[in-house]
Every structure is written in structure tokens, then in C-alpha cells.
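Handover notes (outgoing to incoming on-call)

Open items:
1. Crp/Fnr family transcriptional regulator: sequence verified, structure written out, both below. Nothing else pending on this one.
2. Nothing else urgent.
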Amino acid sequence: MDYTRFDIFRDISNSEVEAMILCFRMRRARFAPGATIRVYGGSRDVGVVVRGAAELVRFDSAGTRTILERMETGSIFGELLAFTAELGDSLEVIAAGECEVLFMDYAHITKRCEKACRHHSLLVENLFRLMAEQARRLSRRVEVLSQRSIRDKLLCYFRILGLESGTETLTLPFSLSTLADYISTDRSAMMRELKKMRQDGVVAIDGRRVSLLGQEDRKLGKRQGIPDNFGN
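Crp/Fnr family transcriptional regulator C-alpha cells:
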């Protein structure tokens, strides 16, 4: 495997990563779609998604499911790097499809290296940089959830995706069913609001592709009959 393509191993060679895998006793594990990768509560390891994608999911005491974060290939997760569960809540990392994870013990990462290895120091630097990026993503997540209405939540999330992609036509990273969990709202209510937004000329939707329409774009979209296929 080419580990150099993962940000956690930036500027570290494959041979150096292989040496750390042995030194740190890292382990790789595969997970089927929907499988629970980690349940938070006492675990002190860090996971790197090396294939597929996963989701950090919160279940409250009533069993309500809320997606806190989507983790694509190369993303990291760990109890020390994420939210702390409230009383009665459960935090789980769940495979969003066929998924493979490389686990490393947090204590091995942070302990003083007897050999003062350069790649060990780089790993720690990369970890803290990724933690800062993760904090920024989570602050955007809070911004979405802080919106009062379903429409405002959707527009806020779409605009964030647009800023990240540099375009007003974006592709959702997950299905509309999952989107409802992500913005913490009822799926049927969200679908009704999306339909209203299409009718108001605010967005055009084709499967998972969403276009934010400006005033002229709205008129053009209606004239050209831009499809609004609400796919899963």
C-alpha cells in the first residue's frame, strides 16, 4: 500500500511507515458496510481510514441517529480527537461501505522516541495539523446545526460544500437519507423543503448533484427544465 498519499504520513516514506507499523504495533482491519468500527468509551487509539469511508454517529438516549462527521479515505478519528459523549449518548464510528482502517495506539505516538526518529516527529506534527483541520470542519458542522429552519440548514451546508469545491454545482458526499441525519432533521420534512426550494428556484437537484441558482440562473434553469430527481 502507498501510505504516502495519506496526510497523516506526509513527508514520510513508505519504508519509514512500515517501520513505524512494526514499532507501534499498528494493525489493519476490514469492515463490512454498516459495521461498527469503534464505540467511544475508554479507547485511546487513533484510526486512519485507508480504504472506503466511515461516519461518526451519535445516538441519543432515545435512539435518534445524528451523523457528526463524514470520514473519507485518509481521514483520522479517535476518542481523543472528537466529541465527548453526553450522559446517555453513544458515539460510534460506522463503516459507510466496504472499509479498511489502520489503528495505532495514541500512547505510542506521543511517547518520547528513544531513537529520536525524524519520521516519528513528522507523524506527531501531521497528527496535530489534522486535528486543527478537524476542529475547523466541526466548527462548520456547528454552524449548520445552529441554523433555525430546515431550509437554512440545507443552504448553509450547500454553501459550505460550494466554498470547499469552488463551484456552485456540488456533489453530495452521501445520500439524501444520510443528509437528513447529518443536518439532524426528519427525512420527509427535509424532502418537502427541498421540493419547495426547487419550486422557488433556489436549487436544482439531479441525484446527488446540487446547483445553487442565482437570480438569472434560476430563470435559465426553469426555461431549460433542469431535472430535479431526488435520488438516494
